[in-house]
Write a structure and sequence with these properties.
mainly alpha, 6 helices, 86% helix
Amino acid sequence: MSFKKNFISNSIFLGWLGIIPFVLSSLLVIAKNQYTLEIKIIGLLYASVILSFLGAVHWGYLLKSEKSESFLWFWGIFTSLLAWLSLIIIVFFKNFYLSSIFLTMGFIAALIIDSKSFLEYRWYLNLRVKLTFFAILCTLLNGFLG
């Protein structure tokens, strides 16, 4: 198998592994048990970590390509700030709805920006659409159920 095919296969596999905490936390929230509140929080915490990661992808890309696209440098940190804000909303205001909406908006914006930034990586964009669907669905379930 060529390096490129192996690289893409591994990336796809790891991307889907990253969905497991989303799906698992949502299924446990749907099941309603004595730990539903904690599981909701853990699911939304994971969503904030992943949103931060999606911004960091741009920093890695820009560092490797040595491009100086100011907006993408800003975007790379904005996702972390939005994720941090969603955590503040959970901790101080106990508002899971608003937190999940902010995270969802971040996932949608990240997908739109990635679709413009990574046109040459069709396989990645195809994967991102699928992963983003599950991330959004589970984030909203964790924010609104229970």
